[in-house]
Amino acid sequence: MEKWRWYYGLADVALLGGSFEPLGGQNLIEAAACACPVVMGPHTFNFAEASEQAQAVGAAQRVANITEGLQAAARLACDRNALSAAQQAADAFARRHRGASARLTETLVQLLARKPIESSSF
Which residues are within 8 A (CB) of 81 and not within 5 positions of it... i.e. 6 or more apart? Predict the structure, then answer.
């Protein structure tokens, strides 16, 4: 089992450390897959779409800096109702996005079945 599953599985809230500096963020989907809500900073350009979608459904929240991030994570961890709602949102977010590889593979198979690949096209 991947180590991140252990970390996020044991955590109530994940602080997305790489999002507080202009590094592009980290994969918040891993946390969501463990029903762990995320507090993220302003720099999530490597995961822009996922970050926006997670925030829109309550699986993640964005703050301006690490101080606000620590405060938001502490508030969420101490509020059992808000934490439960965020955990459910994170789990639902991850469930909605499972199977992307299988869907992509199926689409490619269907496209390839329609038109043979010509050797000159490589």
Answer: none
Q: What gap in Å lies between CA 77 and CA 84, rounded to an integer?
A: 9
Please list the alpha-helical segments (H only) found in the chain. Answer: 3-10, 28-33, 48-56, 66-78, 80-96, 100-114
pTM: 0.79
Report the percentage of the chain scoring pLDDT > 70.
Answer: 92
Bridging pattern class, strands 14-16 and 38-40 = parallel
For 52-82, the pLDDT digits (tens) are 999 999 999 999 999 999 999 999 999 999 9
